[in-house]
Amino acid sequence: MDKLRNYDVSFSGLKTGKHEFRFEIDKEFFQLFDTEQEFTNPRITVDVLLDKHTTFLEFEIKVNGTVELVCDITNENFDYPIENQIGVLVKFGEEYDDSEEDVITIPSNDHAFNIAQLIYENVALSIPMKKVSPNISDEDLEILEKFSPKEAEEEPKSDPRWDALKNLKNKN
User: How does the average pLDDT of the chain come out, rounded?
Assistant: First the structure.
């Protein structure tokens, strides 16, 4: 049984208009993907708003919850709030095509649209590149500042050997 089928939004029997769906996401969802996560212990709610039109579908996918990250400075775990929203237009065509950024084409005979990949990307884009715990102490920040590389304030003195070569270049 394909576990990703749990994230199919069936639109074939729905009337034209707005419809709401809700999914609870945890670590089992992310285990369905063959990638290593930068977070642990996800507790996320996904609200999907489907606006069905006669010739296309509009999806608004909102993720809200928390994940556990490891602080880059202290190496301690902390909860990080996740809140993100994406919109996708789904139109019908000959075959599946997701080459456009905000438009996905699915075959005309499909009766459901799988949003698992969109949920995954929505959460992944919510994770910051630099993970700093909100509980970091002033002492840790002072130590970090003390050992951080400093920018050179003086210009390096020129080497007289190179200056002589530059003069030769300028004479020609």
Answer: 87
